[in-house]
């Protein structure tokens, strides 16, 4: 029987976190072996005199960290990750290669997907697949029930007063950006569409622009003050501007209320369309959210959202929110291209959202990611000359390296790859050929692997970064 330890009901630490800590300690100490079953949450709650929800929350934390393995229709067991007859495993040691993937891929954009296919998920897909498909697509904007659920979801989570007619279902962010660009026309005849982008920024946006022959105009984004609004306001010839105002990708800055007002005033003055990429707003990590740009000026802002960070980018599902003439242009472009998301998937997602399963899943992931973030902040707190940033939201972090050139940055990336840890160089997010103000750094995601594997990779990262010898030797 796994030891639950003693819970201090007078402590300011929530009971579910205390319980998770005690169970984790029992596993790490080797007192509980891999494969050993743990009591059901109902039995554990009764033994400890706590609410069952407290036990469920503790198990969810440990399952997300990789210490427990849950299987449908079977008991939950301790994972085969650490702990053995040789005694406790020291912090920072490498788990057994037999239970740890050779390569730890920490490149950003990968959420933790273990446990998504729970009873609610399987039920939604089973019912969606049990209905005869329609003879054709009735509405190119997407399934009415899913659009209704997305509108309700945005009302609850982002404060948007959206009606289903303003929602268009997409196959993720790339499809949404592509559709939006195809729906726009240059305001000046005789030249291609001219679109502003963030520099650094999401590389796929500039690749989509390049494929379409769109002229991309990069605007600097700095670590200290974010998007250079002076540079934006100096341009009156843009047809659109793509921004990540809630949590810049990858630097983590955001536009405050004053900056948002300036940006929208510029758009109204010049006639430019704002494309708002609201890509990870579900995970603010304690930072008070600001209203979306679309809420402030719905007629001029196209808002893009996705389930990639909450569920998985492999699902290829998201949405566009637009009103008025912009909405009509987007619907016309969608009709020309045909909807890219299957009816079965849309029905399943509508059921999943409508029954509250997505909200419950997001709450579990939010607890998990905040715990991971806290571990990262603690791990990097005392590392001299190395700064961890971009952690106020989302699923990734940026490590700023000591003053050095891009050669050292790439050397760090290469050495980590040799140690079976894959990350991205910060300079890879800059627009090629355009001036950037980026220091040397690396970008890594902390959501994908189990917490055990993540923190082992982080220790590898820290050991490499704190070497006293020249990293280029």
From TrEMBL:
PROSITE patterns in the record: HTH_GNTR
One of the record's GO molecular function terms: pyridoxal phosphate binding
Pfam families: Aminotran_1_2, GntR
Domain HTH gntR-type positions: 13-81
Keyword Transferase applies: yes
Keywords, comma-separated and alphabetical: Aminotransferase, DNA-binding, Pyridoxal phosphate, Transcription, Transcription regulation, Transferase
Family, per entry: In the C-terminal section; belongs to the class-I pyridoxal-phosphate-dependent aminotransferase family.
Protein name, entry field: GntR family transcriptional regulator / MocR family aminotransferase
Species in which this protein is naturally found: Microbacterium testaceum (strain StLB037)
